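ok new one. same drill as before - structure tokens go in, u give me an amino acid for every spot. 304 of them this time. try not to just spam alanines like last time pls lmao
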């Protein structure tokens, strides 16, 4: 008979022969230490085998284990846990129990996606030359108390050929506020901001902007230098506006746009029309005066 386990002194309590790997019945031999006599007990011992468990290291102590580093043991080792759902065991703030934080380029909640459900808000301040009434307010051809018109905000890459990758059609308010929403894919990249209105010259930001957070603010109204090539109209009160008159959207304000206004006047065109440069739903002398001045100033798109 091959001895199994370690000798145990009789104490009146249950014997523990250590961890055995085979479950079954074992013969127990008792030896009287004073005489060296042995005696086989007329009894069986039930050996219970504990199942081996898998334990995963939790290096950042966030309660979630690293599935790539584990050991097998009957008992839980120090620094190891039974969970294996951590995606970043070096960051205690990245685990399945966290809420996704927008803009940090980290999979915070370990769902396999980065910045999911997030959007980037680009908030602009813009006035439209023909619509501008003064006192930081402008007309609404929509006949709205709050909304002035629709605009398209575009984002162009910062290097040649300055391709437009993203755009959002949204509203501009009577106070010149614009909020455009873009996907989180634009984060930590540089873009020119482009504003396009239905009868104004397309206007680019003077420089490209690093989109490094989920809320970007850019004001085209507080300096003529905010537009590429200083391509803004001076409102005379310290504010600046997009230049009005590019009716056919060919990138230049010229006689072709003027002729379109004349035809609209002859046809008694009114209400919401691209030919209405002043936003009052009429084609009248103020529209012609505005476009004449801009034609004389050779207004065209200025961009890198």
């Amino acid at each position: 008979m091959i001895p199994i386990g370690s000798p145990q002194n009789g104490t009146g309590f249950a014997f523990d022969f250590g961890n055995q790997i085979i479950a079954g019945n074992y013969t127990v031999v008792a030896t009287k230490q004073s005489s060296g006599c042995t005696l086989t007990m007329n009894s069986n011992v039930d050996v219970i085998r504990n199942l081996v468990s898998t334990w995963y290291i939790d290096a950042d102590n966030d309660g979630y284990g690293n599935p790539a580093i584990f050991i097998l043991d009957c008992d839980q080792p120090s620094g190891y846990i039974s969970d294996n759902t951590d995606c970043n065991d070096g960051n205690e703030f990245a685990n399945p129990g966290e809420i996704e934080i927008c803009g940090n380029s980290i999979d915070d909640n370990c769902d396999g996606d980065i910045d999911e459900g997030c959007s980037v808000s680009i908030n602009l301040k813009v006035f439209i030359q023909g619509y501008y009434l003064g006192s930081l307010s402008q007309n609404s051809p929509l006949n709205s108390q709050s909304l002035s018109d629709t605009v398209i905000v575009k984002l162009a890459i910062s290097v040649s050929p300055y391709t437009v990758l993203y755009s959002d059609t949204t509203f501009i308010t009577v106070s010149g506020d614009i909020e455009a929403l873009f996907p989180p894919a634009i984060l930590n990249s540089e873009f020119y901001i482009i504003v396009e209105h239905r009868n104004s010259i397309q206007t680019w930001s003077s420089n490209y902007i690093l989109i490094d957070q989920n809320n970007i603010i850019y004001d085209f109204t507080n300096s003529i230098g905010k537009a590429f090539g200083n391509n803004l109209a001076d409102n005379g009160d310290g504010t600046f506006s997009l230049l009005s008159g590019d009716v056919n959207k060919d990138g230049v304000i010229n006689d072709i746009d003027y002729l379109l206004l004349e035809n609209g006047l002859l046809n008694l065109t009114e209400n919401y029309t691209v030919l209405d440069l002043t936003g009052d739903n009429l084609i009248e002398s103020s529209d012609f005066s505005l476009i004449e001045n801009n034609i004389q100033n050779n207004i065209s798109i200025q961009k890198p």
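The first strand starts at residue 24 and ends at 31. and btw The chain has a mean pLDDT of 88.
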